[in-house]
Write a structure and sequence with these properties.
152 residues, alpha+beta, Nuclear Transport Factor 2, Chain: A, 6 strands
Length: 152
């Protein structure tokens, strides 16, 4: 009997099934209290950015914030909040899609797709980014410590 890749693929596929089941179960497991809080804070960040709400963005951000944009420039908290709320950009739509959260001690990592449309002056822009945010639990609340995005 000749053995080719097809013959080898089925056992390899079957061997992988238990892992696939565990992975799917892990993905649908209930969120911990901290995971739910970080995801809620991530959505609050989206809402504050969409509304241009300086107080909310400041409250969600750690004083040490490092906010990286997809073009490579990085802002501290003061600069990020000022630029996000100066009225030069108006968000027409903004969604954080496929948000995931992982808690590591007093830190959390969220990843999501940042999808929206905005107007800068008379120009409309479509935005589609991959985002990584690092959150830190400070007291009872989660604060964005770092954020970096890349174009998708």
């Amino acid at each position: 009997m000749n053995i080719n890749r097809r013959h080898l693929a089925l056992p390899a596929l079957l061997a992988g099934l238990p892992w696939g089941g565990v992975m799917a179960a892990a993905e649908t497991a209930p969120l911990s209290r901290d995971e739910a809080a970080v995801i809620a804070s991530t959505d609050a960040h989206r809402a504050a950015l969409f509304a241009g709400d300086a107080k909310a963005l400041e409250a969600l951000s750690a004083p040490q914030l490092s906010y990286g944009h997809s073009d490579g420039h990085v802002e501290d908290r003061i600069t990020f909040v000022a630029n996000a709320t100066n009225g030069k950009t108006k968000w027409l739509s903004l969604a954080y899609q496929d948000v995931t959260a992982r808690i590591v001690g007093n830190a959390a990592i969220t990843r999501y797709r940042f999808v929206g449309e905005n107007e800068t002056g008379d120009k409309k822009n479509s935005v589609n980014l991959g985002v990584l945010m690092v959150w830190q639990k400070q007291g009872a609340t989660w604060k964005v410590l770092a954020r970096q995005s890349c174009k998708l």
